[in-house]
Known about the structure:
It is a single chain. The protein is α/β, with parallel strands linked by helices. Among the domains are: 2-103, no CATH class; 404-473; 484-621, no CATH class; 629-783, 3-Layer(aba) Sandwich (Rossmann fold). The chain has a six-stranded mixed beta sheet, sandwiched between helices. A five-stranded mixed beta sheet has the order 3-2-1-4-5. A three-stranded antiparallel beta sheet has the order 9-10-11. Helix 3 (58-77) runs antiparallel to helix 4. The protein starts with a helix and ends with a helix. Residues 1-17, 205-217 and 856-861 have low confidence and may be disordered. Residues 569-823 form the CHAT domain. InterPro entries: CHAT_dom, TPR-like_helical_dom_sf.
Amino acid sequence: MKKGFLLLFVFVFSTSLSQNLEESIYVATESFQQHQNLEGLETLNVKISQFESQLNTKDDYYAFINLLVNKAYYLSKINRQTEAIKTYEKAYQLYINHEITSYDIVEYGLIPLGILYHKTNSYIKAEQMIRYYIQLAEKYNNHAQQISGYINLAKLYQSLYKHKQVIEIANKGLQINGLKKYQERRLNSIKRKSERLIEINQNHFLLENDLVGPRFDIGKIEQHEINYEVALKKGDYDKAYSYLNRLKNLKINPLTSARNRAKFSFQEAQLHFLRNENDKAIVKLKNSLASLLPNFETTKIPTTEDLYPENTFIDIFDLWAEIESNPEKALHYYDLSFYVTQKFAQENTDQESYILSASINKDRSEKCISLLYDLYQVKGKSAYAKRAFAYAELNKAIALKWHSSKKQLLEEHPNDSLLIEEQHLLKQQQHYTNKLLNRPINRAQLIERDSLQLQLIRTGLVLKQLQDSIQKKYNLANLNTLNTERLRAKLEKDQACLVEYFSGKNGLYQFVFSPLHIDFQHIELSNSMQTKISKFINYFEKASTINNNITAFTEDAFHLYEALKLQSISPYKNTIIVADGLLNFIPFESLLTQSTSTSNYSEMPFMVQSHRIVYHTSALFYTQSKPYRFKDSALGVFPVFDNTNLKLKYSLDEADRIDDEIQTEFLMYEAATKQGVLERAKDYSILHLSTHANSGDFKIAANIDFIDSKLYLQDLYQLDLKNDLVVLSACETGVGMLQKGEGSMSLARGFKYAGVPNMVVSLWKINDLSTSQLMSSFYRELRKTESAFVANQNSKLAYLKHPDISNIKKSPYYWSAFVYFGDLTPAKSSPSIPILIYCIIGLIVGLLIWILITKRKTWKP
Length: 861
């Protein structure tokens, strides 16, 4: 009986405590709603830390989630967007973890969170979140939330200039039942704006009068927005200013947010600049800053401590830099823009977001490099060249650097549970992303898609929290920063020079680093120069092009060598090339270092004759490369595709030649399955793939064939490969779709992402006996020199000198397709053991002679 009373007392007491906690949370929420200021926020944060440790029941969590949502809403209102995002994310995680399904998380959490992701440039997260809550709204037949989702998704795509998708999304929204008039107007407004922008882009001479009539029956605000865009396009800045003022009168009122006021001030500044009214532009820029920074002093420039992730800051500082006549001050403004973009980047948890930001930031990098080039020309100081080089490197292969830095950190701290968990979650995130790439075709797959979207979002949230913890634990600021002194020291050790190109809208810049000096050149990207580059690339589209006009090829190969200003590297045999843009498709070994009249390829002064070339996507990767250690252990993968129209008839010959040179285990014919290869690859130092491959296009990623299926670029992002060297004896494995800033999205990039440090890859389609001959020579040289870097050049020289290969087959089309990415490991020293043996034998013989002579003397009678 006593025990029963005790249990009842405990139950009543705990229930009372829970009710008291729930009530306390609601009281705190109501109090904060009545005192929404910084002091009230500070008080609320203290209460949150007290409540969190006591949460127990679903009612507690419901009340606490509601409190967090209210806090996040206030943070968003006062432009503390990063904190707002973290608070919304925390509320959503609690909602998921404790299954608080009675709370309308879509309306109060996910919709505002998607908007904040958009505002803070987290475009991938924004798209994932909006698409997810649209799916939830469809599932629960909530038309209002569906429509909100379509509106926000259309606005997201509009900011990314994806106007065709905007129109498609808006049309879907307009078909939903229960559409309210204001929602219909909003969707039509967004749709019509994209339609007009498409027309403006297609017709530079679109007249203002074209925007009237029944077909263009739109509201005043939209009419003025379109007219403003048209006037800007036509360069009629006075008329654009007139329309902007009309928009301001319609949109700005006492309730307008500080952010929107700042945006209008910036637009006014932009028009003043275009009208050559720089003083007025600066006044408006200061007004814009004053809207975003309540304590801003107009006589001072904001410091990095004042700034937070906000797109308008980037617009302000970029424009201020354009106006500024002092180059050092202009560079400072650009640096402030870069600082804000880096604050945005700290929220990224996937490589797609980094790729997108690299594309946006590259134009700013070019402006900084241009300013420093002018200073370098006038003052000749190498410090300007080094600073320009840092801007060139800043956004080069940034997504690949981001992932590589995480692997590097784990290598340095292999037992750190945070880093181990991060790698697990990154692979999980990529797994969900890959599965979502497959379009659903039936209801079961639609349900799976919904689940995958949820898993992807949840993984991203956990990853973000994990990355914040890792950031606090380790200093990650310098992981992706190139140290020029370290670069110089490695070049000195390797007796090499590095040539890096930066390809921009207005020019091509070249940086040449050697152990002794740095050179900085500008190459004008004229129509003539662009033609030279394109024409040279086109020589390698098919085998006959070069041989049909050898004289034209030799002239173009030498002229491009000169145009790319490569004469300065002639003293250096070892050369690192960091290409950019279309230069990624050029086999530099096939350029000619001198003019020549010979038609005999073996006598031509190709760069391969005088330079041993290695390629990298960033100078940082070169400085981080480690010596290649040869191991006589290879896995050869040869699907062959016998009895099909895909048959690789020289593949078997290639296998025989490799087997003669190196210890190889083969997976051939039906054994060359994707899963079988991936399971076995870890047991071998060298992975050799002789198969078909494709560089991909806008719809399909780069891929490589196995007997049963393809391995796509995105599949490689999930893998963790330990091979010391991968040889991709397949077509186009070193090229792919160009991503501005990031570079070529090739299989080579995929294998680098998966952890492979050294690779031999191809730049174009080639399936010929020459490939098997080159590979045979490569592996022979690899065994002899124990250096993939040296073996790559030696195999090409041997091919050119081979007496049994005809001159036609010595065209660079046949031998320059394969390029090397990796370390400049030198050839092993010539064996000194035979000399030592001869010396020892000589000493022994000498000793025996001395003993014989001595004994003869002692035998005398």
